[in-house]
Amino acid sequence: MLKRLKKKWGVNSDFQLFVIFVVFGITGSASVFLEESLLNLFTISPELFSNFPLGNILYFLLRIIITSLLYQVLLIFFGTIFFQFKFFWKFEKKILRRLGVKL
Prior knowledge:
The protein is an all-alpha fold.
């Protein structure tokens, strides 16, 4: 399975694959942590949406959107720190193309 993944991603070594997995893990954790901190900074909580119909759903949609945007930025940031910018930039361009953004 890892051989197939290495071939698909164009990764040369097991160590590089390990580093890529570490970057994905750190990025996911950091994006959730920063999203919570950002919402606390602006005092955005579920109670703020309680007067709206489906307020809880709106709140969680906002959280998902913020987390997703932070994830994309942090992926490039941590990828660069771990000397994998080329891989993650290619990965980001692929994601952005799927979202309809042309580079």
